[in-house]
Amino acid sequence: MRPVVAMITDFGLKDGFVGAMKGVILSINPHVQIVDISHQVEPFQIVQGALLLRAHFSYFPKGTCFLCVVDPGVGSERLPLIVRAGDYTFVGPHNGLFDLALRSIGQSPRAYRIEKYALPAPNQTFHGRDVFAPACAHLTVGLDPLEVGSPVEYSFLLPWEEPFREGQWLVGRVVYFDHFGNCVTNLPCGSYEEGTFRSYRLKVVSHFLQGKKGSPALVCGSFGLMELFLPMDSAKERLGVRLGEEVKVRPASGAPECRDA
């Protein structure tokens, strides 16, 4: 099977940055298959990129190299890394972007600082093209990470807040808005009796059209997290939802325990 490189960035498509990275990869390995997961991460929003990566990486073939660049610290002292865990390789900045995916894999990551194969560059503002793309491409032609860099200790850096118990409720927060205006929370999918948001009592449903038109509800979404939504509408726009707002759920009897407040 052709090697696969899957990309997540906050570059958008206007300025040609994604195309330049692909050009570098194909110049090194013209046989690679490149898949765009998303280039619409909001600028500098590392948590968004981390959520997208965790939601989608496991659906890719074993051996996929995930080239991920949401890098507000480009050119600074943050490390350029190759990280291996489970059946996958991750290439990008050491800023927490890989943390959620690595935690879901559940194995100790092996990290390497990228030290070789960077392109000659007139500046330090485009490591996606000049450092990460060539490193990822050289891995797809069979180089070992030790041939590209040296081992370093991986640190988990993402400012990620887990839900907590408050009496009979599990308290989470809105962490992401999808294309439809659904409000993704940090509450894991599970068995819940009901939820609350502001003054709303939320019904927990199994699909979007089970909700009552005009009334917010909760559903287990495609990110593996509970989502606040309005049927056939944007909960974000209609309700003016903001990142960080609290959403509470009442677990059904026998649901897993979470930490106390």
Describe what this molecule looks like in 3D:
The longest helix is centred in the middle third of the chain and has 14 residues, at 127-140. The chain has helices spanning 17-28, 46-56, 99-105, 127-140, 235-239, and strands at 4-9, 33-38, 65-69, 80-85, 88-93, 110-114, 149-152, 164-166, 169-177, 183-188, 192-197, 200-205, 217-220, 225-229, 246-251. With 261 residues, it is α+β, with helices and mostly antiparallel strands. The strands form two sheets. Strands 2-1-3-5-4-6-7 form a seven-stranded mixed sheet, with helices on both faces. Strands 9-10-14-13-12-11-15 form a seven-stranded mixed barrel. It is elongated. The protein folds into two domains: 4-152, 3-Layer(aba) Sandwich (Rossmann fold); 164-251, Beta Barrel (Elongation Factor Tu (Ef-tu), domain 3), CATH 2.40.30.90.
Offer a few descriptive terms.
15 strands; 261 residues; 2 domains; Rossmann fold; 7-stranded mixed beta barrel; single chain; Elongation Factor Tu (Ef-tu), domain 3; elongated; alpha+beta; 7-stranded mixed β-sheet
Oligomer: single chain
Low-confidence stretches: none
**CATH homologous superfamily classification of the largest domain:** S-adenosyl-l-methionine hydroxide adenosyltransferase, N-terminal
Characterize the overall form: elongated
Q: Helix tally? A: 5
Beta strands, count:
15
- Assign a percent range to the helix content: 10-25%
